[in-house]
Amino acid sequence: ATAGTSATLNLVAKNVMFDTSDLSVSANAAFTIHFDNQDAGIPHNVAIYTDKSATTNLFRGQIVTGPATQDYAVPPLEPGTYYFRCDVHPTVMFGTFTVK
Fold this sequence. Notes:
There is one protein chain. This protein is 0% helix and 48% strand. With 100 residues, it is mainly beta. The chain is globular.
């Protein structure tokens, strides 16, 4: 997506793992994360932090118990490299979130 347009990122949770460990989006434009939790009876979410310490949260999506889908509306982010994870399973579900 180009600046000023809304992009949609698709992210799947299955077997207590995300289907990718790398997400990227254009800077300074709001975007949507279409989250598909395929784990029956297991809660997951998507949260974006400034770094792996997960002390500064930039976005935290609602926790959803699968199987279910959720569209998260995320505000524009400044260019940089961030960290995303599932707050319920932070040691196994995480990745790099790049904003260009």
